[in-house]
């Protein structure tokens, strides 16, 4: 009797998706850290906009991770 491989492939796909979203979340945290260090050293009129976009990006990455945990 041959085992059904589709179940194992679905589990493997979920693991890859979870690890991928985790790496993306780490990437978003690094971006926020880099932007905060940049704004301390470079003074520009668009610093506030860049900070806001970096935090929006982090919030969306967290939302993606939460939705991945709920859906997977």
Describe the structure.
- The chain has 72 residues and is mainly α.
- The chain has a domain at 25-72.
- It has two helices and no strands.
- The chain has helices at 5-41, 47-71.
- The protein is rod-shaped.
Main features:
rod-shaped; mainly alpha; 86% helix; 0% strand; 72 residues
Strand and helix map with partners:
Layout: H1 5-41, H2 47-71
Helix pairs in contact: 1-2
Short description:
With 72 residues, the chain is mainly α. The chain has helices spanning 5-41, 47-71.
Main sheet makeup? none
Helix and strand sequence: HH
Number of helices: 2
Would you report the number of β strands?
A: 0
Percent strand: under 5%
Output the structural class: mainly alpha
Poorly predicted runs: none
Helix content class: over 70%
- Anisotropy-based shape: rod-shaped
Mean pLDDT: 91
CA radius of gyration: 18 Å
End-to-end separation in angstroms reads 29 Å
């Amino acid at each position: 009797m041959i085992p059904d491989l589709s179940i194992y492939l679905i589990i493997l796909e979920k693991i890859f998706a979870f690890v991928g979203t985790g790496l993306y979340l780490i990437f978003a945290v690094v971006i926020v850290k880099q932007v905060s260090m940049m704004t301390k050293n470079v003074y520009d009129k668009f610093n506030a906009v860049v900070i806001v976009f970096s935090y929006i990006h982090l919030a969306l990455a967290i939302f993606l991770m939460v939705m991945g945990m709920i859906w997977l």
